[in-house]
Specification:
Elements (H helix, E strand, L loop, with lengths): L4 E8 L2 E8 L6 E3 H6 L4 E12 L2 E9 L2 E5 L2 E5 L2 E3 L6 E3 L1 H6 L2 E4 L4 E5 L6 E5 L10 E5 L7 H5 L39 H8 L1
Length: 200
C-alpha cells in the first residue's frame, strides 16, 4: 500500500462517500459517476486540465463548485475537478491538505486537520481499501501560442499538439565505447571577432 494514500469512509448529506487523502495528487478531484449519481451540478472550467492517471493522459473540462464535505464534526467547501474515469468518490489532494493544515500520521493511520479559525484539531481514523488507485496529477494545458519556440517556428508545428511523441519500434541512442571518459580539450584559439560572435 502506498503510504501517501489512505481512505476514509464519510458521508455528504448522509450519502456514503469514499474520500482519499493523497499527498501525491496536486489537486482535489471527484469522480464523474459519483457526481452524476448524486445529481451534482457540474460547470465548465476556463481552461482544459490535462490529467495523468495510471500513465494514461485524460483531458477534463468540468468542475463541481462549492461542494460541501462533512468530515467528522467539521464542514469544508471544496471545488473538485471532475475525473471521467475514477473509482474513488473524492480525492483530497495537496491543495486541500495545505489549505486546511492536514497532517497524515501513517503509523497511526490518523489524519489531523487543524482549523485555521478556531485552532481546533480534528483527528480522523482512516480505513484501508484492498484496491488503491494510482496517483493523479493535474496541470493546465499550455496553449500553443504561449510557447515561444513554437511561435518562432510556427510553419513546422501543427495547430494542435496531440501530445508526446509515440513509442517507436527502434529507439535511437548514441552508443559510446565502454569505459569512455568525458572528453576534455582546451578550446582552440580564436580571433577576438570570432570569440565575440561565439558569445552572442
Amino acid at each position: 500500500m502506498d503510504p501517501r494514500k489512505r481512505y476514509l469512509p464519510e458521508s455528504r448529506y448522509s450519502r456514503p462517500t469514499v474520500v482519499l487523502f493523497d499527498s501525491g495528487a496536486t489537486h482535489t478531484f471527484i469522480s464523474k459517476s459519483y457526481a452524476l449519481k448524486h445529481r451534482l451540478k457540474m460547470s465548465k472550467l476556463k481552461e482544459n486540465y490535462h490529467i495523468t492517471a495510471s500513465g494514461s493522459p485524460i483531458d477534463t473540462t468540468l468542475v463541481v463548485r462549492r461542494l460541501k464535505l462533512d468530515i467528522g464534526t467539521e464542514s469544508y467547501t471544496i471545488n473538485p475537478v471532475v475525473l471521467p474515469h475514477q473509482g474513488i468518490d473524492v480525492i483530497l489532494g495537496m491543495n486541500w491538505m495545505t489549505e486546511n493544515n492536514a497532517v497524515l500520521d501513517i503509523g497511526s493511520r490518523i489524519v489531523q486537520i487543524r482549523s485555521s479559525i478556531t485552532g481546533k484539531i480534528l483527528r480522523v481514523h482512516m480505513t484501508n481499501q484492498k484496491h488503491i488507485e494510482p496517483t493523479v496529477n493535474a496541470s493546465e494545458l499550455t496553449e500553443i501560442k504561449k510557447i515561444p519556440v513554437v511561435c518562432e517556428f510556427s510553419d513546422v508545428f501543427p495547430e494542435e499538439l496531440s501530445g508526446l511523441p509515440p513509442d517507436r519500434d527502434v529507439e535511437f541512442r548514441t552508443e559510446l565505447v565502454p569505459g569512455t571518459a568525458p572528453i576534455s580539450k582546451r578550446p582552440y584559439r580564436m580571433a577576438p571577432d570570432e570569440l565575440k560572435e561565439l558569445k552572442t
